[in-house]
Fold Bestrophin.
Amino acid sequence: MIVGLELDWRRLLRTTGPLLVALFAYDIVVAVAYTYLNVRWLAIDGLPVPLLGTAIGVFLALRNNVAYARWWEARTLWGAVVNASRSLVRATLAMVPDPEVRRQIAYLQIAYVIALRCGLRRLDPWPEVAPLLPEATAARLRGSANLATQLLAEQARLLSVQNDEDGDSRMIRLGTFDRTLSDLSNAQGGLERIRNTPLPRHFDHFPRFVITAYGVLLPLGLVAGLEMLTPLGSTLISAVFFALDRIGVDLETPLDNTVHDVPMTAITRTIEIDLRQMLGETAVPKPVTPVGGVLW
Amino acid sequence: MIVGLELDWRRLLRTTGPLLVALFAYDIVVAVAYTYLNVRWLAIDGLPVPLLGTAIGVFLALRNNVAYARWWEARTLWGAVVNASRSLVRATLAMVPDPEVRRQIAYLQIAYVIALRCGLRRLDPWPEVAPLLPEATAARLRGSANLATQLLAEQARLLSVQNDEDGDSRMIRLGTFDRTLSDLSNAQGGLERIRNTPLPRHFDHFPRFVITAYGVLLPLGLVAGLEMLTPLGSTLISAVFFALDRIGVDLETPLDNTVHDVPMTAITRTIEIDLRQMLGETAVPKPVTPVGGVLW
Amino acid sequence: MIVGLELDWRRLLRTTGPLLVALFAYDIVVAVAYTYLNVRWLAIDGLPVPLLGTAIGVFLALRNNVAYARWWEARTLWGAVVNASRSLVRATLAMVPDPEVRRQIAYLQIAYVIALRCGLRRLDPWPEVAPLLPEATAARLRGSANLATQLLAEQARLLSVQNDEDGDSRMIRLGTFDRTLSDLSNAQGGLERIRNTPLPRHFDHFPRFVITAYGVLLPLGLVAGLEMLTPLGSTLISAVFFALDRIGVDLETPLDNTVHDVPMTAITRTIEIDLRQMLGETAVPKPVTPVGGVLW
Amino acid sequence: MIVGLELDWRRLLRTTGPLLVALFAYDIVVAVAYTYLNVRWLAIDGLPVPLLGTAIGVFLALRNNVAYARWWEARTLWGAVVNASRSLVRATLAMVPDPEVRRQIAYLQIAYVIALRCGLRRLDPWPEVAPLLPEATAARLRGSANLATQLLAEQARLLSVQNDEDGDSRMIRLGTFDRTLSDLSNAQGGLERIRNTPLPRHFDHFPRFVITAYGVLLPLGLVAGLEMLTPLGSTLISAVFFALDRIGVDLETPLDNTVHDVPMTAITRTIEIDLRQMLGETAVPKPVTPVGGVLW
Amino acid sequence: MIVGLELDWRRLLRTTGPLLVALFAYDIVVAVAYTYLNVRWLAIDGLPVPLLGTAIGVFLALRNNVAYARWWEARTLWGAVVNASRSLVRATLAMVPDPEVRRQIAYLQIAYVIALRCGLRRLDPWPEVAPLLPEATAARLRGSANLATQLLAEQARLLSVQNDEDGDSRMIRLGTFDRTLSDLSNAQGGLERIRNTPLPRHFDHFPRFVITAYGVLLPLGLVAGLEMLTPLGSTLISAVFFALDRIGVDLETPLDNTVHDVPMTAITRTIEIDLRQMLGETAVPKPVTPVGGVLW
């Protein structure tokens, strides 16, 4: 996630620069050809340019609304993982008397959020996860199709063998923890849904095709009136549409390990710090800080 | 669900190709008739073409918002089925001591998601469901109006006869499971609602009729200005509106067994793999993979 | 609810036909008067017709979004009644040992959904409800201001007298059922809210007035350019706006017993079938089928 | 809330009449000055009137969406108060054996909804609330900053002293009631949020200022083309924008004791009737009926 | 939060005044140069000004929708903190017999909401929080990365050591409080999410850049038609777009300690008053009142 309040012009230029340069060059060519080389057939007066603009507007409004909603839902779901992680460990403080079990649950939970992050980013979780788990558990879970799901199940198994009290109390405790574990399941499932369900392809290909056609036709429609000033109007308008398209592209895949990502590394680190401080640990890792204005 | 990141041009051409060809041919005919055959009455100058464009924009924006919302709600509800299925079996790990009962619950749940998928797709569930159920249960449930609903009731029956503990613990456990079973009921009911409630017919027929009228009138309004370039402007704009209409049509029925469907076969397979790995099984089926860029 | 996938042209013509004929006749009159009778003052060139179109678009987009949201919320709330009805009876299978009490709860619930439907449609529920209730109960509840509310309270009374187990178990069971009964309360309250709160009157009267004014002015603005072709542009555009208005009118009252209604009779029948099959009954009523393409 | 299906033209004229008359008079003056008095500089041909119209459209669409959402959320939250009030008393039928305590809870709840209504409308609740409370309670709660909050706390106190059963049952009952009381807290907090948080002032002042500027400029832009017909186009368009603005103003304060209010008196009466009939009372007050088409 | 119903023109002028003056001066310069100094090349007739207006409209509609949603979500989440704080203390009245523990919980909760407010505003919470906590607790929690989270954990610790009853009752009570503490966790996490996740930078920089370009080009496009009246049209339209941009900027950071903020000081004071009155205290602090029309 980009956190710098200033726009990073270099990054912007790297992604949209070539396109804008190409557009501008094309507009210049059209303007020169018409004005100085007298290529009169380039000017197409009756082009229904505003009409096409309206249609593109409808398209982009729809797509960008949807792309933003995906990005914000992904961020909200990671927020839910944070909340439920804190609630899980807070509940152990109230309901689980054995401090060693509390510690195990907290560390399982840290392993869980790391496994979830690596699963979404399609990275191998084991280098980070293995040190947090007892060896037997690690061995048993290697090869799981969905490691995060199996780690949640592990929480349930661990809680179930705590029977330092009478049976009813144990069952009530299990029922309470079940609620928080289900909240985690729901957030995880939501994140996997966004990761695995691309926006319908229509939303990507059609707008880009139409905007490009628009960029090609626009100077032809304007050149008769603007002559050498054609690029001024044409490039500006096309740039706005390309920028609108770009927003959609950047936001529609919020979990795909790009700079526009939800900052999952920073979030999982925050969870780790909070959970360990709840256990009373004082030596905790440092928060993740932005690198070049980007928080990962 | 189409998962290939590239647009499949052949599929696109198959669905919208004929229409575009027809449009283009018509535009050519109008342009030729006006420019070379001098059929001057074809050009209708005062046509309020932009006005009609605005009205169509309002219509399509409304319809496509609604169609996308249906598609995403269907996907989200299937996600809820995934989450609750995992939570159900995870809760058995904590709260049900008998491994055989855990296994029965997990297999009933796999049968449930298959029955739900087949019910939505209007297919016979029994070939897939029968091997997962005890024979007596299968016999009793044949003929159910809604097999999925009866399979959830079966879960409740199975849980209720587990009385290896004192009465209170049993009741607390039933209360906890009741929450997850109700989540499943709610997701299932939501999916049936989307399946059984078509979008109000207005949303389909009116836009198509108006867009077609628009496609017919547009070249008449443009031909005086564009002459032989008429198809360039006219076909492009009509194509954008037809594409917008197409998106709505593709997304409004997300559970009807088309290529734009929620990939229910893949989702139910994922559930099966996760639940079996939670039981400790290592020989699990393979995930469903896309066929020709389409995940079913 | 209209379920036929084909538009029923006869129904459409019956509702919007007269209006369209009137519009078309008026447009013809204007065109003839201007073109052949030379009534030149009819043509008002400077009319800001597109501006008015934009304002109407804003109005209709707002209204139709809201109307659709009401319709879909009503449908979703009836879905919640279905889900909670199934959950209620499923919970009796797990938690209520006495089969006679299970049966009473299921039949009370069937009576509840019928009372809810009749209450919303302002029909007398007693002919359908009376046969489902014990006579004493029926006598006590006659004269209730809100029969559905009192039937839910009856469920609570019935559950409360089941004390075949120790006190704690009984209380846990009551707590679990309370959740499902509250879900039913919430859905019912939502339906009554939609039924009793008409859309603010502004949303109905202003658009219709403005569209009508628009239909009257439009041919005057177009006739100078289009002459005898005026009706072609004018009637088409007005028809689109009237169609958009019609959608809003049809959807804004989804519980008022019209053809655009939520199909409450069919939904309550589905509930009845599912609940009775959960009790093990095999002789159940048939589902409601559409009559002339309309499901009630 | 206005319930009459017919628009009350007199009310409308009273609120927007003077403005429309002023606009119309101004338009007439412009038209006469230009056409007959030859004040040619009044006509400003190049005014970008449609552009301004688009900007106003964006503004009003945003504002009216938000205003409607506030109105509907307020209505929905009052619906939640209805639902939770019914659920609270229904739960006493199942879980509280002493009929006198049931009665006290129901009457406290009636006092609660009245206190909530009066608090939102900034009226003194005591004349209505005092007769419903035991004198000691009333004396203790006088002077509360937020009477409704303290009445909910009173429910908790009353429930807590019911110890006719063993400790566990009592605690389970308290846990169940806590859920419903929290639902009431949430609805109450939501209503106070809407009441105490005005829409950002931008949303009110800017649109009105711009629409007024628009109303002043519009006839100047149209008069050259329309001459004496200027008011026909100008007043109509301005009226549409003023009507759109009016909708926002009417709906944005749904709890401020105006005719566009949520009908809180009627809703609290409905609650009173339902709760008393649940206690078995037959002598209940009559529902509130509309006065002059307005339900309060 | 600005609560005065009248717009504070001085504040407005301070923020947007300089910009408007600059725009107006520029427009005057263009008008004078063209009209009196005969700088004819300033007039660019063919500028597609309306097209650019449409594109900006799409942009601003999207951005302002999103900014308002952030503002309202932040307000709603603080409302949830209010509701859950009341519910927490209300539950102690029912479920915690020891009045001293009730008091401690209420004061911890007051400390919690203050810590949350200071954390969001990046202020040191200790001057306000320290007097509310036992010294040992304060010492232990100094240095917490997230003080609010640790204070919630403290609530859990405090509740867990109350064992004046048998084990089951204690566990049921812990389960009930866990629900309310999780609600607080969720609201807190949501507020931190909004605070820490800036709106994607695209949404800020692009619109401002495009609007500025628009403000520069607009008088060039209008001057040929309007001559010395150019500023009338140009400044007005630009002002509307800048105002729309301003709304977004003001609302998109609702927790950043500006005048457009959610009034967190007032809300936390309200919570303090309500909780202390629930304990029966009569000497409570006064509500926060607006200073210069702004509630903090």
Summary: Chain C has one domain: 9-278. Chain C touches chain E at residues 168 (CB under 8 Å). Residues 9-278 of chain C form one domain.
